[in-house]
Design a protein that fits this description.
- Its main location: cytoplasm.
- Keywords: Cytoplasm, Methyltransferase, rRNA processing, S-adenosyl-L-methionine, Transferase.
- It catalyses: cytidine(1402) in 16S rRNA + S-adenosyl-L-methionine = 2'-O-methylcytidine(1402) in 16S rRNA + S-adenosyl-L-homocysteine + H(+).
- There is one protein chain.
- The chain is α/β, with parallel strands linked by helices.
- Strands 3-2-4-1-5 form a five-stranded parallel beta sheet, with helices on both faces. Strands 6-7-10-8-9 form a five-stranded mixed beta sheet.
- It folds into three domains: 109 residues, Tetrapyrrole methylase, N-terminal domain (Cobalt-precorrin-4 Transmethylase, domain 1, 3-Layer(aba) Sandwich); 108 residues, Methyltransferase, Cobalt-precorrin-4 Transmethylase, Domain 2, CATH 3.30.950.10; 52 residues, no CATH class.
- The mean pLDDT is 91.
- It contains twelve helices and ten strands.
- The longest helix has 13 residues.
Length: 281
């Protein structure tokens, strides 16, 4: 008879954030698959839980996923945990979950604390639409690709970053995305938790002067409507109305659509714009 795989969220710093359901699962499972067995052992010892541990991390997850699923198929109940937070979210776990679905192995998610949502709420930025992109890439080529992808996002943007690269990353953000509002959450739920709110430039100056330590979550304001309007205006503000109409037509709009777009952009009546289009073919 098949057992079950449990994806268990664990505290991201404060051990009191563990849920009763997570504790029950860890107590009742047959064994625990852990990102770092030393870290998980401390958690289990704190709550006086004794369980066999399986090492499951990013360097062995492809091979270990097969072993773990085989144990579940044999009837074992196995809990998967990461060092902190939810497995599969910038931590090992997604491969195991994907294979469990593919092989029709039953699994259950036991929700818990996550730095992403906690930082978003702390940020006081827009929470209605947000995008989490994990850790900032280390290589410049990968960073360029990331910024090319996100530079026009209106969503609030959330990233993880190392204390060793945060100053460089802030400079990079300012150069590529401008001096937007940002919240930088450090050591969330831990003893020295702190939240910096300001502009990217202010954050750069602060952390350049105050050596950053600990784990960081960056919550960055998305592109504002004002920025979008300003950039769109810059594409035509030095054009004549005739040239503006032609530009819109070259982008694939009909003459009628172009007149409508130009009128809206310039805050003019369509009839007034039409007068400039009479000689345009």
């Amino acid at each position: 008879m098949s057992g079950k795989l449990y994806i268990v969220g664990t505290p991201i710093g404060n051990l009191r954030d563990i849920t009763i359901r997570a504790l029950d699962t860890l107590k009742e499972c047959d064994m625990v698959a852990a990102e770092d067995t030393r870290v998980t052992l401390k958690l289990l010892n704190h709550f006086e839980i004794k369980k066999p541990l399986i090492s499951y991390h990013k360097y062995n997850e492809k091979d270990k996923s097969a072993d773990i699923l085989e144990l579940v198929k044999e009837g074992k109940n196995i809990a998967l945990v990461s060092d902190a937070g939810m497995p599969g979210i910038s931590d090992p776990g997604s491969i195991l979950i994907e294979r469990a679905v593919a092989e029709d192995v039953p699994f259950e998610v036991i929700p818990g604390a996550t730095a992403v949502i906690t930082a978003l709420v702390y940020s006081a930025l827009d929470t209605t639409s947000f995008t989490f992109r994990g850790f900032f890439p280390r290589e410049n080529k990968e960073r360029e690709a990331l910024f090319a992808d996100i530079e026009n996002y209106k969503d609030t943007l959330i990233f993880y970053e190392s204390p060793y690269r945060i100053v460089q990353t802030l400079q990079y953000i300012k150069d590529r995305l401008g001096n937007r509002r940002i919240a930088i959450c450090r050591e969330i739920t831990k003893l020295y938790e702190s939240i910096f709110r300001g502009t990217v430039e202010e954050a750069y100056e602060f952390f350049n002067e105050n050596s950053p330590k600990g784990e960081f979550v960056l919550v960055l304001e998305g592109k504002t409507l004002e920025e979008i309007d300003r950039e769109e205006r810059a594409t035509w503000e030095h054009m004549t109305i005739e040239d503006h109409i032609v530009m819109e037509m070259k982008q694939g709009h009909s003459k009628k659509e172009a007149i409508k777009l130009v009128a809206k952009a310039r805050g003019m009546a369509k009839n007034d714009v039409y007068k400039y289009s009479i000689d345009i073919d």
